[in-house]
Amino acid sequence: MRESGFRLETNPVADVTPLKRKYGVPEAAYSCHTATIAGYVLEGHVPAADVKRLLRERPKVTGLAVAGMVPGSPGMTGAPQPYATIAFDDRGTRVFERH
Q1: Mind listing the pLDDT tens digit for each residue in 75-91?
Q2: In sequence order, what DSSP letters do the residues of 31-48 get, joined into one string?
Q3: 66, 53 in Cβ contact below 8 A?
Q4: Please, where are the H alpha helices in the chain?
Q5: What's the DSSP call for residue 28?
Q6: Is a pLDDT exceeding 80 seen at residue 2?
Q7: Domain locations in the chain?
Q8: pTM summary value
Q9: Which pLDDT does position 68 carry in this prediction?
């Protein structure tokens, strides 16, 4: 994210589950990182390009997520596998972008 121009502030916590619940992240979308930006929630290894699109388009969603630890997603090693970034809110989820 830094390489894509984002400034980051990290706050390591022993248990991120309460934060995920507080921010409305669906359990099926849980991953290793939870972040906030401009009123949105980001969960997991969301590509910087998707975050930039989110901030440009400003859809009425709670946030974006890449569930799990998908090989080949930003920051993950291994042979790339197809995955989707999902948008979520209190009504459910939808595909935001396919990779």
Answers
A1: 776 777 899 999 999 99
A2: -S-EEEETTEEEEES--H
A3: no
A4: 17-22, 48-57
A5: G
A6: no
A7: 2-98
A8: 0.88
A9: 79
pLDDT (tens digit, 9 = 90+) per residue, 20-62? 999 999 999 999 889 999 999 999 999 999 999 999 999 999 9
Among the listed residues 46, 56, 54, the one whose alpha carbon sits nearest the alpha carbon of residue 84: 46
Strand partners, 44: 66
**Amino acid residing at 81:** Q
Q: Which residues contact 63 (CB under 8 A, 6 or more apart)?
A: 23, 24, 25, 40, 41, 42, 43, 87, 88
> How far is Cα 78 from Cα 8, in angstroms, rounded to an integer?
25
Q: What CA–CA distances, in Å, run from 13 to 17, 32, 38?
A: 10, 11, 21
Beta carbons of 61 and 78 less than 8 angstroms apart: no
Find residue 97's DSSP bridge partners: 85
- How far apart, in whole angstroms, are the C-alpha atoms of residue 94 and residue 16? 23
